[in-house]
Description:
Layout: H1 3-10, E1 16-17, H2 23-33, E2 37-41, E3 47-52, H3 53-63, E4 82-84, H4 89-99, E5 103-108, E6 111-117, H5 118-142
Parallel strand pairs: 1-2, 4-5
Antiparallel strand pairs: 2-3, 5-6
Helix pairs in contact: 4-5
Amino acid sequence: MNASRILSEKGSEVFTIAPTMTLLDAARELTDRKVGAVVIMEDGGKPQGVFSERDLAREIAGGGASVLTEPVSGVMSRDLVTAGRDATVDELMGLMTDRRVRHILILEDGQLVGVVSIGDVVKRKIAEAEREAESLKQYIESA
């Protein structure tokens, strides 16, 4: 299982916002889209950052409700964690663990083609464990 297959199963739609959007509007976007993060895009279509629920919580905890009128560009995560379509689930999981992120941007020829979340990775790992358990069960029953 790799990033390409994950995107083909879940869809490759990427929710993006402008860097000028306020934290409040960005929070509404997360809620409306039922996602944990959105990608901030520059005018040229290149990812500039990621804004997540964690970023929102950190800012509100530090500055209270008054931060909700600030632009997302000031608080987004600029250190983008990326992988190619051929990255395996284990590689994606390792990146998430090492970099302490929950979303990885999937690039192809430098273009953003999708986002894989920790939920996507966990879902595939659970399915893999269930398949292995079923195989072992069948092996034991046939012995």
